[in-house]
Design goal:
There is one protein chain. The N and C termini lie far apart (70 Å). 15% of the residues are buried. This protein has a domain of 113 residues: Alpha-Beta Plaits (2-Layer Sandwich). Strands 2-3-5 form a three-stranded antiparallel sheet. It has 182 residues and is an alpha+beta fold. The radius of gyration is 27 Å and the shape is elongated. The structure holds iron/sulfur cluster (2 copies).
């Protein structure tokens, strides 16, 4: 028989001996392997009671950022959507009215902003492309969900808490990140 690779292994089709038919030797071998693993360091942890610490360069769930006064930074320029290799970002821009200056930093803002987490590969290119420091990848991850719709994150799911109305939640969401002042 001609093999395509050198990994070909012929199966031994010899009739089994009486000892082999008892499977005792194989059971003992299996138990020895199990016994050896009792003394090894466990590869698993008791999640969610225990959590692993992420690497400092871990890139997780996106956060839409605000400035120190709580104004949304995003100006709906679309650069993050263009940079996204997975085409996971969708948005709609709107013009800021004169009575909305306390809500949005720029004259244009994202009336709708969505990220499809089933498409996202957490590459971080959206963060790099953003000229307004309006989006960053945080040190948390998208929780599991039973429906596909649950993975379409809307603007309200992504927006960081208001720094003045909810300073504790804002600080927690910011995590290890330094304050962005520009
Ligand atoms: S992290 Fe990458 S894949 Fe995910 S939305 Fe940003 S650019 Fe797209
Ligand atoms: S997050 Fe940044 S790059 Fe994306 S639309 Fe908003 S301002 Fe533009």
């Amino acid at each position: 028989m001609q093999a395509l690779t050198n990994r070909l292994k012929l199966v031994n089709r010899k009739p089994m001996t009486f000892v082999e038919k008892l499977y005792l030797w194989n059971i003992l071998k299996g138990m020895a392997i199990t016994f050896r693993h009792i003394f090894k360091r466990k590869a698993t942890i008791n999640y969610p009671e225990q959590k692993r610490t992420f690497s400092p360069v871990f890139r997780g769930l996106q956060v839409l950022n605000r400035d120190e006064e709580g104004k949304e930074r995003c100006t709906a320029c679309g650069l993050c959507a263009v940079a996204c290799p997975a085409e996971a970002i969708t948005m709609e821009a709107a013009e800021r009215s004169s009575n909305e200056t306390h809500l949005y930093r720029e004259e244009k803002f994202a009336a709708r902003f969505e990220i499809n987490m089933l498409r996202c590969i957490f590459c971080g290119l959206c963060e790099e492309a953003c000229p307004k420091n309006a989006i960053y990848l945080s040190q948390t991850f998208a929780p599991s969900n039973y429906s596909r719709k649950g993975f379409i994150y809307k603007k309200d799911d992504l927006l960081i808490p208001h720094p003045k109305e909810n300073p504790d939640a804002y600080a927690k969401a910011l995590g290890e990140r330094k304050k962005i002042t520009n």
